[in-house]
Structures are given as structure tokens and as C-alpha cells.
Design a protein that fits this description.
Helix content: 10-25%
Shape: globular
Strand content: 35-45%
Order of helices and strands: HHEEHEEEE
Distance between the termini: 25 Å
Strand order of the largest sheet: 1-2-4-5-6-3
Number of strands: 6
Length: 142
């Protein structure tokens, strides 16, 4: 577990946690610190596909919320360039999926992140390798 002393400033966390789509899907951003982010989502009936499993779009949205948080955790705006996702095991109704993202590499202009979503039983549901373009623009109001 990350040390809360390392968390990003409250203003930045609030901005990252205010994602409207995340709110619609019930995704809750739990922690952000430089180079790390974690969010969770409960697979309810509104997130199921026709086969009765977690919709890939909902699972990908969970990964993307974490990608946005971890890539912007240094306080400057980062813009997604690529997200390669592998769906490994279906999220089941009632599962609590928790996604964690970690920074693998960061340069002045790009960064790469690994994001994994697991069910409460430890089952790996999906993984992503994601890349961003890093700008020099600081988050306004942070």
C-alpha cells in the first residue's frame, strides 16, 4: 500500500477524480501518488454485456481512468497516445474490480504505464500497456 504522505495534492486528486464518465460507471478513484494510481468499480447489472459478463468497454474505462490519473500524477498535463489492452478473464456480476497503474518509464516528452485490473479474488481480469505525450502545461488551479 502506498504511503498517504506521498499522495498528490488534494486539488489535483479532486480534478482527476471528477471524471464524468467514471461517475456514470461507478468508478471510484482511490489513490494517486506520483507514478501510481488505483481505482475500483463494482460490476453491476448496468455494466454487463449480452453474455452476462462485465462489458469490455466498462473494463477498459476503468483502466483508462487509472491511466489518466497515473500519467497526470506529476502535475503536468499528459495526453494519451496509445493503450494496448488484453482482456484475460471476464468480470462477473458483483465483482469489485480494482485497477492499479504504475509508471514504467518517463522522459521529458513521453511516459509508459502498466495498468492491471483484478477481481476481489485476485483474478487478473485485464492488463494494459499505455503511453502518453507529456506537455509542459501544469494543471490549472492546482
Amino acid at each position: 500500500m502506498a504511503d498517504p504522505q506521498d499522495d498528490v495534492p488534494a486539488e489535483l486528486f479532486a480534478r482527476l477524480a471528477a471524471d464524468p464518465l467514471a461517475g456514470l460507471l461507478g468508478i471510484v478513484l482511490e489513490q494517486v501518488r506520483p507514478g501510481y494510481a488505483r481505482a475500483a468499480m463494482t460490476v453491476g447489472p448496468q455494466l454487463l454485456n449480452a453474455a452476462g459478463a462485465a462489458h469490455g468497454g466498462a473494463t477498459m474505462a476503468l483502466l483508462d481512468v487509472v491511466h489518466a490519473a497515473v500519467s497526470n500524477s506529476h502535475g503536468t498535463l499528459a495526453v494519451a497516445q496509445d493503450v494496448h489492452t488484453e482482456f484475460l478473464s471476464p468480470g462477473r456480476p458483483g465483482d469489485v474490480l480494482t485497477a492499479e497503474g504504475t509508471e514504467l518509464h518517463r522522459s521529458r516528452r513521453t511516459a509508459v504505464y502498466r495498468i492491471e485490473a483484478r477481481a476481489q479474488d485476485g483474478r487478473l481480469v485485464a492488463t494494459a500497456l499505455a503511453r502518453v505525450f507529456r506537455t509542459d502545461r501544469e494543471w490549472e488551479g492546482v
